[in-house]
Amino acid sequence: MQQPGRAAEIKAIGIGKSFGSFRALDDLTLDIGRGEFLTLLGPSGSGKTTFLMILAGFVQPTDGRLYSDGVDITERPAEQRAAGMVFQGYALFPHMSVEANIAFPLKVRKKSSTEIKRRVSEMVERVGLKGHEKKLPSQLSGGQQQRVALARALVFEPGVLLLDEPFSALDKGLRGQMQAEMKRLHQETGTTFVFVTHDQSEALALSSRVAIFNHGKLLQVGAPDEVYDRPANRFVAEFLGEINMLPLKGVRNADNGATGLCEDRTITLRGNASAVGSNAILAIRPEYMSIAPEATAGENGIAATAVASTYLGAATRLDLTTRQGAKVTVSVPNEVAASALSKGNSVWLTWPAEKGFLLPDGGQ
Amino acid sequence: MKAYLSDRMGAALLMAPLLLFLGAAYAWPFFGVVNWSFTLPEPGLGQYGTLLSDPLVQSVFVRTLRIAAIVTIVSVAAAYAITVVWVRGTPTQRVIAEFCILVPFWISVLTRAFGWVALLSNRGLFNTWLQAIGFISEPLTLVRNEFGVIVGMTHFLIPFAVFPLASSMRSLDDRVLLAARGLGSSRMRTFWSVFVPMTRSGIIGSALIVFVFSLGFFVTPAILGGGRSVMVAELIYLRIFQSPDWGLGAAISVVLVLFVGALMALLFRYVRPKQLI
């Protein structure tokens, strides 16, 4: 339905926004690629929604420039930007039928009535709303309203689709269903998607790249596995999922990685890890750690005592304490957890050298 | 359940004085009026027959409906503009709009009617000024006719039209307006095809309340109409107090009350009472 060339390429350079003395967004520079699915992720008040509103043209940035396909659109009003937008709570026109809602952007663009009819019915079919065309939004379920909002925002083939926490009002099952649907719509339309959420699992599942925000600053941008496995700092590491952190001393670079001492054991890191100082924090995701009865030579490992377990069905979550008192959580097979707790609770924690990474000591 | 019942009893007790007063001061006398309409000067439906056949009574009813309709359209349109500024304007604009809405409430209806006479009469301010700048040579007849009545009534009723509109504009979700603009709609188009339809219940409520008020207007038409533009309420007054024709006056009253009652029933289908204040 859409020529791939119509997807927009967006460039934000040094974007900042102040509301009085409050700095909502600070010095944001970001390239959004043609046809990309970019998620803006962060806690509430992190600036992600402000950036989306700036992209839509509803909020004027205090500093910086915004380019779409090389054209400066910083001062261009929202109605001339042709960005499709899906709001939190959908913002459907309550007095218009499903059909009229979807036709609205085409009517505004003065398309012929035959073209409007054709494209609306195409879109109704695409989002699975056939048979509901004449209903009012208030007669639809949450998921159906969501589909109307998506259809309305996509029907005029915008260069970019902006989505502001579109699934926050849906229950979990419906959420998963709508996420899959949105991924499909992204592939089918080929347009650029910019999606705001505070749900990290949603961000990791949907996007081609994730941009993480906190306190008005863009902290890191990267592919989901990149930001999850190699977070730029402690905030990103913690926001994207559970993480174990252990102090590391005497850190120095080694070939293809780094080494250091953790609780008197030599630890090796392989991959992107490089030392910034002699002290650092060693970070490992719980699912990459496992439990062994004793140390194996040449493998990373430290001694720990199991203190509690939580049965999760598919696996058991085990809380442990190291000799020097650091708290560690691992996710292990159920039978491993049972034996760990029975054997005087003393076990050996191990992890592959490429799964650990370094965070600067103490700071963000 | 017990607490609920006693709450209801308490509420009933608190409302009792008002209900008794309304019963004694309105309902009981109104039954008397209904009684007159069927019994004076002799028992039967004679007065209602006159009502249907008398060209004078009919012309007054038609005039009343016409004036009420014009006043309704003008008041609601003007109130809509004021309310948009009041609810969605900048803080300064809001203060000015609020002042314009509330000040008329502090001046009595009589004072306002005479004020308009002073402004609109042949030697009033408007005619003097227009003649002074040479715009007209003969004074325009702006008062003691339907025009004067419409001006005075509109001025009185605009604030009443504001409240239902304000209530519907306040409950409107701003994101829907943003959505319209984001989809490419100009401000003008967003106003006409999204904002106005979404305040529909406010417009209906506002129009009905102004219309109902207009039907029973007495003081303003009596003063600004100068006897030449008689409306229903004034006709009833004339039948009761000047040509002692109580039966006909009573019959007209009954018809007016029934008509207004039907409109009120319609009104409350669209608006909750608390939206009117």
UniProtKB/TrEMBL annotation, chain A:
<dbReference type="InterPro" id="IPR017871">
    <property type="entry name" value="ABC_transporter-like_CS"/>
</dbReference>
<keyword id="KW-0547">Nucleotide-binding</keyword>
<dbReference type="InterPro" id="IPR003593">
    <property type="entry name" value="AAA+_ATPase"/>
</dbReference>
<dbReference type="InterPro" id="IPR013611">
    <property type="entry name" value="Transp-assoc_OB_typ2"/>
</dbReference>
<dbReference type="Pfam" id="PF08402">
    <property type="entry name" value="TOBE_2"/>
</dbReference>
<dbReference type="Pfam" id="PF00005">
    <property type="entry name" value="ABC_tran"/>
</dbReference>
<dbReference type="InterPro" id="IPR050093">
    <property type="entry name" value="ABC_SmlMolc_Importer"/>
</dbReference>
<dbReference type="InterPro" id="IPR027417">
    <property type="entry name" value="P-loop_NTPase"/>
</dbReference>
<protein>
    <submittedName>
        <fullName>Spermidine/putrescine import ATP-binding protein PotA</fullName>
    </submittedName>
</protein>
<keyword id="KW-0067">ATP-binding</keyword>
<feature type="domain" description="ABC transporter">
    <location>
        <begin position="10"/>
        <end position="240"/>
    </location>
</feature>
<comment type="similarity">
    <text>Belongs to the ABC transporter superfamily.</text>
</comment>
<dbReference type="InterPro" id="IPR008995">
    <property type="entry name" value="Mo/tungstate-bd_C_term_dom"/>
</dbReference>
<dbReference type="InterPro" id="IPR003439">
    <property type="entry name" value="ABC_transporter-like_ATP-bd"/>
</dbReference>
<keyword id="KW-0813">Transport</keyword>
<dbReference type="GO" id="GO:0005524">
    <property type="term" value="F:ATP binding"/>
</dbReference>
UniProtKB/TrEMBL annotation, chain B:
<keyword id="KW-0472">Membrane</keyword>
<dbReference type="InterPro" id="IPR000515">
    <property type="entry name" value="MetI-like"/>
</dbReference>
<keyword id="KW-0813">Transport</keyword>
<feature type="transmembrane region" description="Helical">
    <location>
        <begin position="203"/>
        <end position="226"/>
    </location>
</feature>
<comment type="similarity">
    <text>Belongs to the binding-protein-dependent transport system permease family. CysTW subfamily.</text>
</comment>
<feature type="domain" description="ABC transmembrane type-1">
    <location>
        <begin position="61"/>
        <end position="267"/>
    </location>
</feature>
<feature type="transmembrane region" description="Helical">
    <location>
        <begin position="246"/>
        <end position="268"/>
    </location>
</feature>
<feature type="transmembrane region" description="Helical">
    <location>
        <begin position="147"/>
        <end position="166"/>
    </location>
</feature>
<keyword id="KW-1003">Cell membrane</keyword>
<protein>
    <submittedName>
        <fullName>Polyamine ABC transporter permease</fullName>
    </submittedName>
</protein>
<keyword id="KW-1133">Transmembrane helix</keyword>
<dbReference type="Pfam" id="PF00528">
    <property type="entry name" value="BPD_transp_1"/>
</dbReference>
<dbReference type="InterPro" id="IPR035906">
    <property type="entry name" value="MetI-like_sf"/>
</dbReference>
<keyword id="KW-0812">Transmembrane</keyword>
<feature type="transmembrane region" description="Helical">
    <location>
        <begin position="65"/>
        <end position="87"/>
    </location>
</feature>
<feature type="transmembrane region" description="Helical">
    <location>
        <begin position="99"/>
        <end position="119"/>
    </location>
</feature>
